[in-house]
Amino acid sequence: MKDSFPRPPTQWLMRSLRRSAVPKTTKKRDVASLYEVGPRNVTTRNCAANFGAPMPKISLTSLADIASVVGTQKVTKVRAIKKRGPYSPAVDFYKALREALVTAHDNGWSKVNLLEIPHAQTDPKKVASYLSAINGYNKWWGQKTLQSFDAPRSTYSKHGIDVLVTPETGIEAGTTQYVLKFYLNNEPLDTFKANLITALMEMTLRDQCQATEVMAVLDVRRGKLFTMRSQLKTLKTVIDAELAYVADLWDAL
Predict the structure, then answer these.
(1) Which tens digits make up the pLDDT trace of 7-41?
(2) Contact 200, 207 (CB under 8 A)
């Protein structure tokens, strides 16, 4: 029997894989607001909007997760995201961790201060998970002097799907300024996912950033930083193909 789900982007495509000077600020940031809908930088065909229905919204990390798998695994991930519903701070497992990492350098915290965060949690699962993440972050921090600044955010819209592009913070490390997305998943961040995340950040945030600022994603648990290194045009094609697939599959689930 023919599969009723749309086919994912072709394998060859999967393989082929800036803002004018704006003063930085160090005002306190509401981490939960990172997951609200931002301005749309890209105008696309949008049947749902034409009828007044809300566009499906997915996170940047969720899109990377979908794009990294094939076949029934892709269907499973899309179904899980659809059933999850809108973002809610009340069920955000990593909310306190994100807040700590985002405000640590504003508050002049040390690595020791960060290590107090896990033990302030009442959920044993959070204690272990937060400790692992902070150990990884402190490893990346190392001997560097870090200062934070507000990162821009936006939304990429294509094929009736909104992708929320919400880097948690900007980090100045020495002479380099990063617009930084935190990757907190248990599984390691691979190059394909990192390239897709940083490419979408480049596509939507560059006109809000200084030319010297680098789009980056930090695999927090492993203390590994990934920066934009792949061909943007090719990655945009991959991203748009994935969103077309998600849009068709969304209605079929």
Answers:
(1) 444 343 443 443 333 444 444 445 444 444 333 33
(2) no
The Cα–Cα gap between 100 and 31 comes to 10
* Residue keyed to tokens 């480049």: 202
Produce one character per residue of 209-220: b if its CB has 16 or more CB atoms within 10 Å, e if not.
bbeebbbbbbbb
- Nearest-angstrom CA–CA distance, 63 and 161: 11
DSSP reduced 3-state for 14: helix
pLDDT in tens, 110-125: 999 999 999 999 999 9
Which residues, 6 or more positions from 162, have their beta carbon under 8 angstroms from its beta carbon?
A: 37, 40, 55, 56, 57, 58, 155, 156
Identify the band that residue 182 occupies on the pLDDT scale cut at 50, 70 and 90: very high
pTM as predicted: 0.78
Rounded distance, CA 99 to CA 134, Å? 12
Higher pLDDT, 87 or 111: 111
Sole residue written with tokens 């799907």? 161
Give the pair of three-digit tokens for residue 157. Answer: 């819209």
